[in-house]
Structures are given as structure tokens and as C-alpha cells.
From TrEMBL:
The species this protein was found in: Rubrobacter radiotolerans
Record keywords, A-Z: Plasmid
Top-level division of the source organism's lineage: Bacteria
Annotated protein name in UniProt: OsmC family protein
The UniProt record lists the keyword Membrane: no
InterPro entries given in the database record: KH_dom-like_a/b (IPR015946), OsmC/Ohr_fam (IPR003718), OsmC/Ohrsf (IPR036102)
Length: 145
């Protein structure tokens, strides 16, 4: 049952060998593998870790877009996400910490704070999704240059 206003997105994986899968999304390929204790052989990233990458990419795109609209002179933006998973299955993330590293000329800390707040509370669907089961905290650093 789909709503006319919903955007349908597709992803697929194909078994290569062992626990190694080849994934495809939007015409791009990505290798997936399990951890060694589950039969993985280091042929790709573990699928759950892609959630952290999705969160980092999603909020980074929001934040840079908002900062550009605020006419902030940003020369670099890095976003790191560290997640802690539960020991019991289904081993969801229980905590995630986001670190924003912003570099630019005369960057206004209030503009950075507002951009992060808007992304985390309103725009980033990855944070909204993971935030349903995990406590999400964030911090930022600004470097001149």
C-alpha cells in the first residue's frame, strides 16, 4: 500500500560468497560483509555501519546548505558519527554522537549551532529514524581558514 506522495526508493543485494554481498542503490555499487565472528572476510562494510554513514551524509548536506544560505564562508566540513550498539539482539544503536568540524573565514558559531539544530530537529530523516531508538548528541568545532 503506497501513498501517492511517498517517494519509492529501491536497494538490492546479491550474494557473492560466504557473507559477502554486492549491493546496488541508485546505480551505485557497494560491498557488504559480516564481521569475522559471523563468517565475514573483510570484503566490505557491515550493513549497520551504513546507518552511521547515512546519518553523517544526511546532516552534512543539510548543514552545508543552511550555512551557505546564511552566507557563511565555509572551506571544509567534516561530520563524524560514533555509534554504540546494544549487546542484545537486534543490536540496534542505543547512542550516537555526531561531531561537526567546520572550517572557514569568520564563521559565526550561532549560524553553525542553528544549522545543526535545524538539521537534527527538522530536516535529516536519517537522524529522525535512528533517533527513535538511540539517544543522539552532537558537538561542533570551528577552525579558522
Amino acid at each position: 500500500m503506497s501513498n501517492e506522495n511517498q517517494k519509492v526508493e529501491d536497494a538490492a543485494v546479491r550474494l557473492v560468497e560466504g557473507m559477502h554481498f554486492a549491493g546496488e542503490i541508485d546505480g551505485f555499487s557497494i560491498d557488504l560483509d559480516a564481521e569475522e565472528s559471523a563468517g565475514g572476510r573483510g570484503k566490505g562494510t557491515q550493513p549497520m555501519r551504513l546507518l552511521l554513514l547515512g546519518m553523517a551524509g544526511c546532516t552534512a548536506m543539510d548543514v552545508i546548505s543552511i550555512l551557505r544560505k546564511k552566507r557563511q564562508q565555509i572551506s571544509a566540513l567534516e561530520v563524524e558519527v560514533r555509534g554504540d550498539r546494544r549487546e542484545e539482539h537486534p543490536r540496534t544503536y542505543e547512542r550516537a554522537e555526531i561531531l561537526y568540524r567546520v572550517r572557514g573565514e569568520g564563521v559565526d558559531p550561532k549560524a553553525v549551532e542553528r544549522a545543526i539544530e535545524l538539521s537534527e530537529s527538522r530536516y535529516c530523516p536519517a537522524i529522525a529514524t535512528i533517533g527513535k531508538s538511540a539517544q543522539i548528541t552532537s558537538r561542533y568545532e570551528i577552525e579558522e581558514g
